[in-house]
Amino acid sequence: MQDSVDDHFSPPPGSRQPGTGPTTDEFENTRIIGMRQFDTARAQTESAASAVGTGIDVRWTYADFSGFTVRPEFTGDDRTHTTSPAALGAAFAASSQEDGGGLPELGLQEGERGGNPALAALSSVVMPQWLRDAYAPKDILLPVGSIPGIVQQQLPFHLARLGGFFLFSCPFEPTIVAGSRLRTALADTLGVDADQIVVQGYTNGYGHYLTTPEEYDQQDYEGGATPFGRWQLPATVQIAVDLAAAMRDGRAVDNGTSQPDLTGAIPNSPSGVAFVDLPAPGRAFGDVLSQPAPQ
Questions:
Q1: I need a labelling partner for 72 at 20 to 30 A (CA). Which of 46, 57, 236, 289 fits?
Q2: How far is residue 217's CA from residue 291's CA, in Å, rounded to a whole number?
Q3: Residues 52, 165: contact at Cβ < 8 Å?
């Protein structure tokens, strides 16, 4: 994530079509991009300037995102706001259409492709007003957080220091700008350069996407898959800053309460195993479905 990323950056239409990249060969593109990352990492480890100091420290907490209170200094409008129980929107089901995803036959669209006015009209009838207000402008498709135990909502966050290197981990997949804002907030609180901070998503939990409020308002795939509403990123920034301030000042933090362990609580299918774990008819696990091309 580059801290020079423009908050208003948007890739030009058609720039992320499948099969595009340095070459027209997707396998060669994978090799090239992987080598770029490897060469850069190796250069940093071999440089005398890469020393990160000594010492290890960590702060961590669980936060209940079904109703997390976000303080005014993090909301951008000087008002207190609250996240909402997880809900996935119509744009989530539309998937990332510019990347070739989605099911057009369902008639669901990302926001930049016109959104889902028919579903919005239906929601205005079947969804209570308070629920629509909580997630606006998301067209709610699956209010999964309203059913206990369906999705994880008490989520873990960690800030680790290895010498002068800081790793903030969260259970979301941050967009580029969301990650950039997290890095900036952490750098400002810790008094270090943003280059010393890495934001790592999908760690120790799973909470779908993390978009900026502006990206959420756009309601493309990523916004539709940001489950806890428009204030999810400000809530995450608040948690990151609180962890960073505690680490900086040498204070302990309240670790919160983890999600209840649902091991054994989810019923088996009638056959005793999940259908998705069965091989296709006439096949066995381990069968080669398609031979690789000869070298």
A1: 57
A2: 45
A3: yes
